[in-house]
Amino acid sequence: MEVGTAAFALAALGQDTRLALLRLLLAAGPSGMAAGEIAAGLGVVPSTLSFHLRALDQAGLISATRRGRQLIYAVQIERLRALIAFLSETCCGGEPDRCGSLAGSFRPDLTETAPMPAPGFTVLFLCTRNSARSIMAEALLNQLGKGRFQAFSAGSEPSPSGPMPEVISQLSALGHDVSSLSSKSWALFMEPAAPRIDFVITLCDMLSGQACPDFGATTITAAWPLPDPAKFSGNAAERASLLNELYAGLRRRIELFLSLPIPALDRMALKAHLDELAHPIRQGA
């Protein structure tokens, strides 16, 4: 197990409710528990529980399996063994006889041999037309957060002609992969087979007067209002300069977002940090 992976898992466990949740699921064994049973056992409300379940799931410490209409949660035992083995592998300077019973508790045959999947978060950027700002944000986060984040974008009224050619040209010139970028409806992300969304960030003041769709109680939302490139005026050079400013502003926000210790923050703290990024310079960042 890599140091970064272990640190991510330990950060997820560094909270009272999550630690109690993991112990409760360990007691339940491989059969696991439904969310309602867990909430009753811990004495927490469902919305709070969902947030903590998501944090442990993202760290790879638990997983959910659908049984009928219920999601059953269970501990990823091999992941937990690998984590504890990582912590104890240097015990007593590599002399297991000095470690007593601890050395025998984490034999190599009990730990994983296959690479651990990297934990990750999903982010959906929204704009009305999904043709410029959200397209830029998707490309930026997928490049800067590769391995930790997966970004998507969508709109309430996606552009029939697709992303703005100027935006695609700019992103391509800056080294971004533009092959999969397209304008699409946010309705795609409400379908049963859609990916789980952890963060939803809107990039315009109003989505044509429409309220954002409900992605569930554990999805954290924020608004980073930015100017619409479709309204930029001037000649080609002036428009290119404005696009560069927009790109730089988005990149700054995303870099600050990537620097957040997400597993160590609770929902309210994460929301506050994301809201502050609407005006990163004003916040002194």
Describe this structure in words.
This protein has 285 residues and is an alpha/beta fold. The chain has 2 domains: 3-110, Winged helix-like DNA-binding domain superfamily/Winged helix DNA-binding domain (Arc Repressor Mutant, subunit A, Orthogonal Bundle); 121-276, Rossmann fold. The chain is built from 10 helices and 7 strands. It has helices at residues 3-13, 16-28, 35-42, 46-58, 77-88, 101-105, 133-144, 165-173, 236-258, 267-276, and strands at 33-34, 62-67, 70-75, 121-127, 149-155, 199-202, 220-223. It has a 4-stranded parallel sheet with strand order 5-4-6-7. The longest helix has 23 residues, at 236-258. The radius of gyration is 22 Å and the shape is elongated.
Write the layout of secondary structure elements.
Elements: H1 3-13, H2 16-28, E1 33-34, H3 35-42, H4 46-58, E2 62-67, E3 70-75, H5 77-88, H6 101-105, E4 121-127, H7 133-144, E5 149-155, H8 165-173, E6 199-202, E7 220-223, H9 236-258, H10 267-276
Parallel strand pairs: 4-5, 4-6, 6-7
Antiparallel strand pairs: 1-3, 2-3
Describe what is shown at a glance.
The protein is an alpha/beta fold and 285 residues long. It contains 10 helices and 7 strands.
